[in-house]
Amino acid sequence: MRKPIMLFVAILIATFSFAQSSGFSKLDEWTKVWREGQQTYFGYPVNQESPLHEFYEWYLSAGMDVINLNNAGDPMTETPWRMSSHAFERDVIAYFAPLYGFDKDDVWGLVTHSGTDGNNHGIYFGAKYLYNKTGKQPIVYVSDEAHYSNMRLCDLQNLEVRLVKSDSMGRMIPEELEKSLDVSRPALMVYAMGSTFKGAIDDQAALNAVLDNHPEVMVYRHVDAALFGGYLPFTAYKDMVSHSQMRFDAIAISGHKFFGLDSPCGLFLCTREIYDNQNNYNVTYLNGNMKMINCSRDAVQPLKFWWLIQKVGYEKWSEQANQIMSCTAYLKEQLEQIGWPCWSNAYSNTVFFKRPSQAICYEYTLALGYDDRFGGELAHVVVMQHVTKEKIDRFISALRKTR
Ligand SMILES: Cc1ncc(COP(=O)(O)O)c(C=O)c1O
Known about the structure:
Blueprint: H1 2-20, H2 25-37, H3 53-61, H4 86-99, E1 108-112, H5 115-134, E2 139-143, H6 148-156, E3 160-164, H7 174-180, E4 187-192, H8 204-212, E5 219-224, H9 228-231, H10 243-246, E6 250-254, E7 266-270, H11 272-276, E8 282-283, E9 288-289, H12 300-311, H13 313-337, E10 342-344, E11 350-354, H14 358-363, E12 367-371, E13 376-382, H15 389-401
Parallel strand pairs: 2-3, 2-4, 4-5, 5-6
Antiparallel strand pairs: 1-7, 6-7, 8-9, 10-11, 11-13, 12-13
Helix pairs in contact: 4-12, 5-6, 7-8, 13-15
């Protein structure tokens, strides 16, 4: 009786491993690394439970895999051109616009290549808007703990940047903004939401109050909400990512972080006022005035976004946002209980703590940081959908063993 069962199990295993094999050992090894590491991928802000399996099944069964799909052109301008997924991209923008406090008739947006691409548009649009309105080049103000893409993009766009000091938890200090403000030039604010390592959220109300004291300075505000722009709209803190509440002009969010797209993409939204005051380039072969930066764009990412809106949607995203918040609090409590020095910012799903052994950092793919004010070597966990309480328990028990 035992022999046939064992045989059955062996056949199952053989079939399963055969189905998994690509025929290339290098590729199979690589796949194994990801399949094993996926569940303990704690240090980086991506949702490792991408709900796109059925999308791929549909994609293959519909024969879309043999077609070259491209979304070149402005997705918000309807044209007679039918070979694109612009109609889906417009649906995606229409769905997210109210979640970020934009009026449906006063928004322009697109599905970007990444959070960085969204920041590129946010900074570029801001610089051109301020210049076209005032005839003066703006100065960019950004916190010294904001994501490096902002500094890199300012470099690329040849913009003058003032790095404004942040407090020990990573938030831009309003008094430091006041000190660095040049009132003779327009201000291009980049608000970090949040900062890369500590997950800090710049206090937009306090920073806006500083700017309001200088009505002579024309201000444009871009919010870099790559990570937090994903889950905050589904929480009680949704006003923090609302254009109508916070008065920002543009916002960038990553699609592959909270929303669970399985490869880089993002959202960029701005008001019509900003869009309408960009430099014009009429491109006849694309049927219009191309204000955005990229020509060829991925046509599949808007489809995936659209699919997720139908299949996951508001209620499930709200549940996931609550789960993330409660697991973040749980992780912090558990670290405190074992006496492991740890910190986190309000509204944030990032907990940073004294750096554990190299082996644990490696096993849990932790991201590393350094700050003398917190005792030197640090690491962080970004609590995404796959970082559940059970996995946190295993992580804590691994930490405990190393002490
Ligand atoms: C606040 C912030 N801005 C920008 C980025 C860059 O986004 P992406 O990796 O989508 O280009 C990140 C990535 O982690 C981030 O956390």
